Amino acid sequence: MNVAEKASQASLFDPIRLGALSLPNRVFMAPMTRNRASAGNVPNDLMTLHYVQRASAGLLITEATQVCPQGVGYPNTPGIHSDEQVAGWRRLTSAVHDAGGHIFSQLWHVGRISHPLFQPDGQLPVAPSPVAANGQTYTPQGMLPFPTPRALETHEIPAIIEQFRQGAINAKAAGFDGVELHGANGYLPDQFLRDGTNRRTDQYGGSVANRARFHLELTHALLDVWGPGRVGVRISPSGTFNDMRDSNPRATFGHLASELAKLPLAYLHVVEATEADFRHGGERYEPVPTAFLRERFTGPLVVNGGFTRERAQRYISQGLADAIAFGTAFLANPDLPRRLRENHPLNTPDPATFYGGTEKGYTDYPAFDAPVAQVA
Question: Contact 230/178 with Cβ under 8 angstroms?
Answer without folding.
Answer: yes
